Amino acid sequence: MSADQANALELLGDPTEDEVAFRNRPESAWLARRLAASVLQGRWRLSASVTDDAVLLVSELVGNAVRHTGAEHFTLRMYRRRGWIRVEVRDPSRGLPCLLPVRDLDISGRGLTHVQRRSQRWGVDLLPRGKTTWFEIRTADR
């Protein structure tokens, strides 16, 4: 693991051990991507293609939390089991994300379409106070 990756885990927290909280600000998407990449590449040593897809999808889920929930914060949590990774973004809003139909020239509304196309499974779990939006990607370690 590089020093930069270790620093991200040290500064922000370890999403493989507990939820890592972020403030609801646009720059939090960059921080969440950096943290996810640190885990995926540095700790779990996953392929570049899996890492790239997962980091993109983290960005999409975090972007939705920042833009659409109005919450003060959200959290990131990451799990790994043989052959799979699961990434969860939790926020205190019970508003459900919508998979919108998109056309080639649309400039927004593609986030969940990316999640649907690049993950094997995704969904939303409603909680008593909020929701968890998650995706799962298959890895080569079967």
Number of helices: 4
What CATH first level would be assigned? Alpha Beta
Instruction: Give helix and strand order, one letter per element, not per position.
Output: HEHHEEHEE
Roughly how many Å is the radius of gyration? 14 Å
Give a description of the structure:
The chain has helices spanning 3-12, 27-43, 48-68, 111-118; strands at residues 20-23, 73-81, 84-91, 121-127, 130-138. With 142 residues, it is an alpha+beta fold. The protein has one domain (3-138): Histidine kinase-like ATPase, C-terminal domain (Heat Shock Protein 90, 2-Layer Sandwich), CATH 3.30.565. The protein has a 5-stranded antiparallel β-sheet with strand order 1-2-3-5-4.
Summarize the model shown:
The chain has 142 residues and is an alpha+beta fold.
Keywords:
about 140 residues, alpha+beta, Heat Shock Protein 90, five-stranded antiparallel beta sheet, 4 helices, globular
List the topology elements.
Elements: H1 3-12, E1 20-23, H2 27-43, H3 48-68, E2 73-81, E3 84-91, H4 111-118, E4 121-127, E5 130-138
Antiparallel strand pairs: 1-2, 2-3, 3-5, 4-5
Helix pairs in contact: 1-2, 2-3, 3-4
